[in-house]
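Sequence dictates fold. Below is an illustrative record:

_____
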Amino acid sequence: MVAPTGTARESLTVLCRALREEVDELADCLTARILEREDVYGALGVPVRDDLRATCRASLDRLLTQLAGDLAPDVDAAALTVDTGRRRARQGVPLEVVLRAYRQCGRLVWERMRAVSRARFGGEHDAALLVVADDVWRILDASSDRLVDAYRREETRLRGLELGRRWAVIEGLLAGRGHEPARARDAARLFGVDEDAAVLCVVAPVGDADGDPLPGASEALAGCATSVWHVRSAEVVGVVIPQDEDAGTTVVDALRPRALGPVGVSPPVAGLARLDVAYRWARLAARTLPAGAGAVADLDDRLPEALLAEAPDLVPRLRRAALGDLLDLPPAERAVLLATLRAVLDADGSPSHAAGALYCHRNTVMYRLARLESLTGRRLADARDRLLLGLALAAPDDDA
């Protein structure tokens, strides 16, 4: 870069001081140029449009003062740029739009300096402008760099605040505070849905494995629901707002290929105020699956298992009451009889159909059933006994 000579510097000072006399007209021109190209300011509303014109004037005046060499030593030349970057980030104006505005500012100043040199000074300063060009654009580039840095820092800060706010809102809903009207309204605004919208919950326990137990869940649901995901210490929680009434089946089908561990899905509930209920149901559904199983459980499909999971201390008593002396048989013999019982119940009590499923003769099934009834004291013809035996089969087998 060629350093500007004393004469060139003096020319730059003269031209910039002359332009400061028409800074209001320059600000109007710059504002019009920006709004002609960018529609985001209009979309963001009138306060931003008014702020844009004020910022254009202040930026032009600061740039011209700095180029003229008139900026007081105790004034931070970048303070205005930093403030603009922060405000634009808070207003949601895209960074590329802000940078284009700064380029427009530099281009306008350069055009007007050339025009003023010819119109007011008969071209006397034209040659000097070529010498100081690098100095002008160096200042503009440094200002743009500070703006980008300030914008990104503020954007990061805002993102952290938003994440913190979202975390607090979801934690409040999961804790049952969604019944407070203000919290429900805040959550509805956060999710962009109606307070009474149907919502369901997904819970994926983290377990002992590292990493996400349900990777790509948001993308998997993109075609059928809006979802927000919340990471807790021991689980990943999804708040899902479905697009159709057949929500449970659709969500389960979409998530099943992504599950790396047990995943529970609640039935839909009416409104965000009941998210705590959906959360409890989803956790319960996940508990009905074996630890480490890559599977998705819809609570409605696993209600017997869910009832047992809610009262784990009763499970051993249930199994002993239902299966009796069968539990004391050697493991191999016990497994055969339990498999026969399961096949008969699945076949609606038909020994013939159960025999087909077990690949054995019907008489073999009949013999095993007689032995089962003798060991357990339960009769398959009795509806209550069938219910008890079915629950015992659904319960975790700690005796195996």
In short: Confidence is low (pLDDT under 50) at residues 1-5. The chain is about 65% helix and 10% strand. The CA atoms of residues 10 and 68 lie 8 Å apart. The radius of gyration is 36 Å.
